[in-house]
Amino acid sequence: MREINDGIETIFLEKLLYNPRNQKLWDKLIKSPLFNSGVNVFSKILGKLSHFSFHDFNIYAIPVSHLDAAWLWTVKDSVFRAYKTFKMALEHIEKYPFFAISLTSPQYFEWMEKYSKKLPSPDPDRTMWEAICYQVDQGKIELCGGSWIEPDLNIPCGEALIRQRLYGQLYYLRKFGKIAKIETLLDVFGFPNTTPQIFVKSGAEAFWTTKITWNDYTMWPFANFIWQGLDSTRLFTHQFRFNIEAFLDLGRYKVMARRPKNNNLIFNSKSFQDGEEMSPIAISGSKLATKNYSGLYELDDYLDKEYVRTLGYFYGNGDGGKGPLNLEIDFINILSKYYNIKHITTLDFFNILKKEVGEKMVIWDDEMYLENHRGTLTTQAQVKKGNRKAENLLFHAEMLWTLQLINIRDSFNPKTYHLFRKCWKYLLLNQFHDILPGSSIPEVYIRTWREHKFIIQSMKEFISNSLESYLISGKNMIYNPLPVSNSINIPVNSTYIQLNDIPPFSLQEIDPENLKELNIENPVQLKQSNNILICSNQYFVAIFGRNDGNLKEFLWKNDFESNYRPLLYSFDPPLSHSNLMNVEAFNAFNRNKGGRIKIYREEFKGNPYPAWNICKNYTQHPIKLMCEKVEIIKNSQTCLEIQATYSFLNSSYEVNYTIFHNSPILDIHTHIDLRDKEVLIKHFFPINLDTNEIICETQFGAVSRTRIPTTKMEAAKWEFSMQKWVDISDKNHGLAILNKDRYGASANRKGVSITLVRSPPYPSDFFYSHEKLLSKKDRPSHTDLVKHDFSYALYPHKGSWEDANIPEKGLAYNLPCFYFQSIEPKNRTESIDEVKIIKFPNISISEPNVILSALKPGEWMWSKNKDEKIGTNLPFTESKNKQFILTKNAEHWKWDGKHFILRVYEAHGRKTSVRINFNDFSSKFNLKSVEFVDLLERKEKELDNFEPNHFSFDIAPFEILTFRILFD
Fold it and tell me: Which SUPFAM superfamilies does this entry report, sorted A to Z (predicted)?
């Protein structure tokens, strides 16, 4: 299997080629005439086998090092690997005058800064950190990437991806006075089309990856192209193979690098019809070269035979760090004498490449979906759950902190700042592309679970402590931490009452005794027959099978219409209240299989990466699910709960469906005691809506995918990513599926499935990790063999997903209000039914499609004197506003009491005029100025349209806008 081969290859390089005891042998071999002539012979043989000549290209050699922050080793191991990487880089710089290496991930630089005094330096005159800083200044160590770590891009939310860039780029700026201009993510498992905007607005001028060459259905068609984001941001992108595999497949580059016949040719996965990956030359699962390019022939009408001759040869052993071997460097140096290969940095290469490519470029207007590693959206379910909870609480605790700082100027506590910074670093590190996707060894997740728990507990405590001044014992309180309306379930008399439409950022008093006396005008209703349970409220009817527990039908109650709208199956004649209870309807409902749990066996024989990949033929191996019982757990006027209990193989499964009298949402909670290896579990919902389109939330927007593919690229997306929701709508009705911590889904002409959990083998690590945290007895062989709890919901609605404000619903579903019992408020004001609102500072946005993404203290500090020294560090001054400085050490940051950062995004894909209001702040609060800033919080321009307590602006479809707000 390829995963094992990768492990063996890494161990081979680790134990043999990188071993210092063997270095003299390698040096002797390299200096021999035999090696020199052998390189020349090898290059000619390679050219003949792959039908090219090195003379066909202008090749530029760029040394790089790709280090996984965790994979077959732990994060603690990676600290030492980072040291080895920098140490070898410094040694190579000393040995080879032409050598300059491109390195990513500020996290690794910070490790070297932190442990520098404990680490031996190859430079006798400088510490390890001093030597690194010196070589960065000399241009021998090039700063690339710009993200704090090389993160997964499918699973983190949009704000987390911004913080990756913010923390990473500002670290570079603080320590070295410059940022990375080329984002490089060579090993990430897919690229949403919202990332170009994030990259460009945080300093990226170009993007490079190699991962899409791993596609298993189609050949990626272009090497050099403009990647157009969801908001129309354009980013110059280079995509080709890495290391020696690039030389083995130069025939493919000739086809991928062809010049377009016309400018602004736009392609996407729906317009590119073929692109089939034809049988490549492969060894042990590794695709070495392609000889059949017929899948790209459909582009002949659009592309010339002439191709871009500039080719970057990025080389250096991957995954385990350390960078190029002496052997690799000498090999490319000897090759350069025969073929005029030039040694260069990544930035210089892109400048040359852009110049040769010119203005006429192909545009890719779509996500860059990786046709591989689809299982990483689901593997390690507990890590995904911890990530979502940590994100939600961290973002919104930060908003609360900022509201406090604005309202009470002297409330800044350095300990709070350090707590938030610590939590952010924990979150960002654990979003690394082999940690969060679930493709690391068991030892890695001991640390991840601990750090997620720390974030979650710390933020809950912070929120409680922050509200303490408003809360006095004696009363019950509700706090909405979100910038959108929210809801909460209040326990009353062994049942629950749901309170809806709780205003953004509001703090409210509630008296449960008054709720007990509420007159419920539209109570939940339950009707039963021998075979089905009919449950309804004022919004929908949910019908369950008494024998199998499946959701037999889900009917939307049309406003002002007598007929019900079935969302799962079609009915003729139309269903109404009068004929819903007749025998024919009962029989029809009972015949439906309904929305149900589906379980499959994954057979991993021949599957090279089981932790990464879902078996393509999993649907051919279903596992029978036995229904043990179906029970009514709660049945009151306000709440109805149905529970179905199942078993399969050695595992058990419970599904709870909850209906509230005043909620349009059908809540679904599943509990799985998973004890069986190599299974895949999905919850399938049939769909009776006349559309081929499924809308999936992505970071800062939504993307359209298809249920019935018409191209090979579309067909390859048989498992796809989502954030908090997916939605299927026709012109009149729709059904959204909200989730709290799931990221994978699939769809076909029959319906939609949410992927819940899978239990593949862990990656094989041999004897690779030096940190031993588990004994052989306690070390699991397969992932996810634990108890799981998942929450998701069905939300039927009228009209489109935009009409129903589904992004807002998904946000509220993920973080309901906080409920504090037995506390008494201060500053009581107006009354709304059984809830009394407390005067509390908050922000409101006039348009529902514009969502607040961040409210935070600025990273830059306001200063009267631009040359002010903070501690012993001379700050870095912003170019467009000299009053703002950035300390060389983030630990010296302090609240300036003058400004904050506010970020919003447009969620529906339409241009909007919007107004933001600041409500119930202290009487001293007045806006002084509003500036547009980029994602690194650097000034772009000023906004003129503002008043003391509000400002207005226009926002483009799916645009992210960030403001720096100065106030008196």
Answer: Families 57/38 glycoside transferase middle domain, Galactose mutarotase-like, Glycoside hydrolase/deacetylase
